[in-house]
Prior knowledge:
The complex is a heterotrimer.
Chain A: H1 2-16, E1 26-33, H2 40-59, E2 67-74, H3 80-93, E3 98-100, H4 108-114, E4 120-122, H5 127-135, E5 143-145, H6 150-163, E6 172-178, H7 181-196, E7 200-207, H8 215-224, E8 228-232, H9 236-247, E9 254-256, H10 264-270, E10 278-281, H11 293-306, H12 314-331, H13 337-347, E11 349-350, E12 355-356, E13 372-378, E14 381-388, E15 392-393
Parallel strand pairs in A: 1-2, 1-3, 3-4, 4-5, 6-7, 6-8, 8-9
Antiparallel strand pairs in A: 10-13, 11-12, 13-14, 14-15
Helix pairs in contact in A: 2-12, 3-4, 4-5, 6-7, 9-10, 12-13
Chain B: H1 2-13, H2 15-19, H3 23-48, H4 56-74, H5 78-100, H6 105-124, H7 126-131, E1 145-147, E2 150-152, H8 157-180, H9 182-192, H10 194-199, H11 204-230, H12 240-253, H13 260-275, H14 281-296, H15 300-309, H16 316-319
Antiparallel strand pairs in B: 1-2
Helix pairs in contact in B: 1-8, 3-8, 3-11, 3-12, 3-13, 4-5, 4-6, 4-11, 5-11, 8-11, 12-13
Chain C: H1 2-33, H2 40-58, H3 63-87, H4 96-119, E1 133-136, E2 139-142, H5 143-165, H6 167-177, H7 179-184, H8 189-215, H9 222-236, H10 241-261, H11 266-281
Antiparallel strand pairs in C: 1-2
Helix pairs in contact in C: 1-5, 1-8, 1-9, 1-10, 2-3, 2-4, 2-8, 2-9, 3-8, 5-6, 5-8, 6-8, 9-10, 10-11
Amino acid sequence: MKKLVSLILTITAALALAVPAMAADTIKVGVPLAMTGAYTDTGDNYWKGIKIAIDEINASGGLLGKQLEPVRFDTQEFAPERVMQGADYLCGKMKVDSVHAGWAGWGQDVRAYGKYTAPFFADDGSQSAVDVFNQDPKKYSNIYQLTDTDINQASSMFRVLMALPYEYPNKKVAIITADDAWGTGVGETLAKNFKKEGWKVALHEEVPYGTREWGPILTRIRKAKPAIIHLEIVSAQEVITFFRQFMESPTKSILSYGYSIVPREVVQTMGTEADGIIGEVPTAMPTPIAPTPEAQAWVENFKKIWGHQPQAGSWAAYSGVKAWAAAVEAVGDAKDHAAVCKYISTKGYKGETGWWKWDESNVMRAGGDVPIGHYQVQGGELVTIFTDPPVKPYKDFKFQTPRWCK
Amino acid sequence: MGGLMAIIYGGLAIMPLFVGGVDYMMHILIMILIWAVVASCWDLIMGFAGIFSFGQVAFFVIGAYASAIVSNKFGIPPFFSIFIAGGIAAILGVLVGLPCLRLKGAYVALVTFAVHMILEPFLKGHMGRAIGTGGSRGILTIPPINIFGYAFTPDNKVAVFYLTLVLAVICSVIILMVIRSFWGTAFLALKDSEDFSASLGVSAFKYKLAVFALTSFLTGMVGGFYAHYVGMLSTRMLGIDLFVTLMIMLVIGGIGQFPGAILGAIVTVTLNEMLSPLGPYRPLILGGLVVVLVLLLPDGVIGLLRRIFGGKRKTREAEA
Amino acid sequence: MLIEYADVFISGLTNGSVYALMAVGLTLVYGVSKAFNFAYGSFYSLGGYLAWVLLAGIGIWGGYISVFIIALPLLMAFGYVTEKLIVAPLRSRSDWEIKVMMITLGLALFMDNFYQVAFGSRMKSLPPIVDGVWDLGDIVISYQDIVILVLSVSGILAFRWILNNTRIGMAVRAVAQNPEGARIVGIPKDRVFAATFAISTVMVGAGGVLLAQKYFVSPTGGWDILVKSWVITAFGGMGSIQGGLYAAFILGMLEAFVGYWFGMTWVLFALFAVLLATLAVRPQGLMGKWG
């Protein structure tokens, strides 16, 4: 029995000592991202941007003379208690002075990190996260969103679809989305907008992730012959299989992929085969030519470091770190979270393309110097054809009528 | 069994003395207690009753959603709604159990796992939204448990911890009593030879259905407790991650080796946290560990403890 | 109207042929040794990754024919060794059925995350075996689907032939029907168990090679395969290859028509509803036997 008690006590002690040693005199930066599970890809995109920002700051002598030290946390698949644990770990235990996430829990994150004071940057793109914020803006004043909401992004997609220099043969649309919060949110907003303009929503389906046989849906599409098909499933396998099976016998429909154009494999796998598909990226760095020389330099630098084009989210996450660092420089104290937050909210941040300004809900609304980018795949590359709001053609890049619509 | 359980819970009970001020550690301890109950229930149904139920996570989530919806919609205090949630889970458990008891081995696993599989589209879909699950956005506002005006919110983690401890101890004692009772003996007999026990008048059907009801009730109740503690819910608990983690707890603790599941929960959660910075190497190591442990440690940590301390009960069969 | 139904029917046929190929290995192992392999989906991915390494990584000469020639023996060896190392030692234990499920679940976790560490979390694509479509006017069928259908049905037929006409096949059937009797007449039971496991690995791995060019390969892509195969084998009757074949096509059709009439979200509900209804009437599945 005595041995047993001592063993239990040893386990207990081991548990208590599971506290890593703290490095001295650095500024800790929390990075909760999905490192395992279904969201690993997006987590990777954000991390690449954050890493560049931290390395840049450290290489230039650090922040207020101190080096930044990233503290990573694996949010896995965003189970509620996992999100909460991330906040308790990073803010409560590691005492980080800022947190840079990407997709972070669509509202759950606001609750979890709102308990603490360190500035928190997320890329939720979700109205439910903003709704939580608005319940108690004071308490959640350290929460910043790097992108506009699903509702505004979907409205932007709709405006661009209506602005395309293309004569629609009819006023019918098919909307297919994933059954997650993002997909349903975009689908509902799009459907509402189309109906208001007098369009008929011929088909509106929510499909589970993992759908790779599109026969039944394509049969209905081929019967309805809609002028627009909008697909919103942020996962490469689903959208590539859809496209290939659609192309076996295409209808004259503009294929609008929304944010699903983002997974790198879509363009990488299909190359010029994907020419004609259009899509959207919020908080975007327009390609192939960035809007300013600084922005172009940033893109080149990213390509040099990681060996590929920046993905959606990389630049947003990078800018979050830089915006926070700029505020800390101005305030002169990383520990004074309230002052840092106040500075970010009131002054904003000047990035590669121009000014970032957060609104009263701490959301980085699309527009101004950081608009939503709308793309078309041309020559196997994502080419920005419009920015919004307001809907504006981007430089000299033109929409091309897809080959199956001719 | 009881002695070891007392030592484990006693050890956990003094933990706040060391880490009471660190929210992160308290949160881990609370989750250990919650998973300990879920894993123990799973052990009861699978390890002792020999039913391959793979629906424990589903009942946990059902309980969590039920309690959140009941308290949000009808204003029932969470203290009571978690019992209602347990009741709902128990009813569903019996409904799932009824067809299962005619089936064998991998079929039972499939049917119970089907509940798990279907739950996510159900909670996200139109039917789920109609009853108030919030669809794929989840439920973001759930009131905390409130006893005599004292709210057990995530901000008072030490208080929540002791409340969880009370709940876990009660659940564990119930499970222990079941194992020690005539039921436990009946299950052992059924597992060894169903035909022979039936001829002795042990009704497999009645006991198995009762164990379905009991484990679903306890699991659902703990799920409800979880919902009110965390204060938000989403379907993301239904990923494969939690399912596998719970199974690892059983493997580490030892199947049918109560209170091994509790030890399994402690070891697994701790290990998971310690390996977490390794990213994808964490599940890689856990997976490898399961393979090695099943081969080398058939009775889990409990078996190991017995081998070290020797003497006391060679095997469970000997005891029975 | 008729055209549309024909179209949906063809989707159902495509689904069915894919499912048949996937499920037959699982049902075989369960039928012979009562072992349920949770790592089955990871074995499927293994086939896909092998093909990817050979084609995209090494750039092997001879395309898919060389891939099959190299990958199939590798898969067979992998299956055999896996059975010997981690399944066979459990057989003598009490609770071994649960233990096998657990150990293979651990193996699945290990393998899936090994893929992620080794190949990255992003999906891998493979060149198509054939390009183009067969245009019949109103109905269009891709050659890819035709190849999958032909190869999977002929694969299963070849497999049945082996079971019915070769020494090893007869040994497998003998062990499945009466393990004790088989032992008495001198059939090495352990070798048969390992051999069936190896054959099942080959079947699902070959499916992985064949389907990777249509559905791609990703670290966690096997779970879907595992669940679908599980439903099909239970529906057809675990251990019955013919039952599995029927079940695959019935469920493939069900999926296509439910998707067409009610929408894709209802497919899973429909699958499980039909499964439950079937099991309520026939607990052993369509063509399964107890024992």
